[in-house]
Amino acid sequence: MAANAATTTGDAKKAGVHYPVNKKATGVAAVVSAANTFLNTLDSDQQAATVLDFSQANATSWSNLPCGSSCRPGIQTGSLSDDQLAALKNVLKVALGTGKDTGYEHVLQTLLADDQLASAESSGSGPSAPSGSTSTDASATASADPSASTSADPSATATDAPTGAPPSGAPGGGAGGGYGSDIYFLAFLGTPSADGTWQLHFGGHHLAVNITYKDGKVSGASPFFTGVEPTSWTADDGTTYEPLANFRDGLLKLTSSLSTEQLAKAKLSESFSDVLLGPGEDGQFPTTKEGIKASSLSPKQKKLVLEAIHPWIADVDDATAKQLTKTYARELDQTFVSYSGGTALDTQGDYVRIDGPSVWIEFVCQNGFVYQDKVHYHTVYRDHTRDYGSEFSFS
């Protein structure tokens, strides 16, 4: 993330509202304390850009696209000073956990991927990134006739086009789009508190984190969108990054365990060029579950279903992840596994879905947008009853 603001922490504290901080807090109270510490580094205008109404319009204003503030609310990372940016990162660290394969590490690697994209684009290895919200939606299509879908053609070029609604009255920097870790946005929808209802809303290109808090607990850890392009790369210091490797590998272990007969049952008739339930598709769960029912799987295969789900719910705090795991385990026999295209997850249109009474996960391969000779990934995690903490109705 870039830091280019001239505002100092001291000046910001004087100009803005002071938010109480509890340095010994744990759980949700610790997230609130970290949020307040961040807010205390901001001046009044920055605070106003960050703390917004917890309205349906603001909550659903997220996207997987490089469309800047035209499709998401909040304060932009690139507008912050070093101290402010460090405080913002601490909010994410406290809310998402630390260590290997945690949400915080995953978010940081997603930001690094965007910097890699920005570098590749500037070097002329790919087309310009779309900006604003003027592009047309050519993604998220599915057809009952596989021959009618462009996703069945491995040579087809995936289109990253805005599908999320623009934020309602939510100020933010960078009205245009583009790639890079400095074009991400943080908003608190509602005032952070240990006993109220509010949402931590963070995202940018290929990332949307939505965690809802109510009465001192996490009431929803979804929708959560995460994608990546390139899928892997090696940094100048020799470190190799592959942010979605564990997400992909869990699904590969699951699908490779299926017999020929089970694969036939799991096969979908539709073809997919993107996830079905991406931005702007709230509440649009299919009325009929498709694929193979987990109740027909072996105990080992059932365990693989739960292991495949885990990376998505591991992107929130450990306590919430454990509770969600218990819920999805109880509902496992009513959960379905399905796929379209191939199961190798290396070709345009390869698609895997897990759909239960609560859990909903999609993983799809698209041809690269900047790295056009490679695929990139889009994934989404939703919950049939817990999206946005169950605060809104989309029926």
Question: What does this protein structure show overall?
Answer:
With 395 residues, this protein is α+β, with helices and mostly antiparallel strands. The strands form three sheets. Strands 1, 2, 4, 5, 6, 7, 8, 12, 13, 14, 15 and 16 form a twelve-stranded mixed β-sheet that branches. The chain has a two-stranded antiparallel ribbon with strand order 3-11. It has ten helices and 16 strands. The model is unreliable at 2-9 and 127-175 (pLDDT under 50). It is globular.
Break the fold down into its secondary structure elements and pairings.
Elements: H1 9-15, H2 27-39, H3 44-50, E1 51-52, H4 56-59, E2 75-76, H5 82-96, H6 103-122, E3 142-143, E4 185-189, E5 197-204, E6 207-214, E7 217-220, E8 224-228, E9 233-234, E10 240-241, H7 245-256, H8 260-266, E11 271-272, E12 292-293, H9 299-313, H10 318-330, E13 336-340, E14 351-355, E15 359-367, E16 375-383
Parallel strand pairs: 1-4
Antiparallel strand pairs: 2-4, 3-11, 4-5, 5-6, 6-7, 6-8, 8-16, 9-10, 12-13, 13-14, 14-15, 15-16
Short description:
With 395 residues, the chain is an alpha+beta fold. It has helices at 9-15, 27-39, 44-50, 56-59, 82-96, 103-122, 245-256, 260-266, 299-313, 318-330; strands at 51-52, 75-76, 142-143, 185-189, 197-204, 207-214, 217-220, 224-228, 233-234, 240-241, 271-272, 292-293, 336-340, 351-355, 359-367, 375-383.
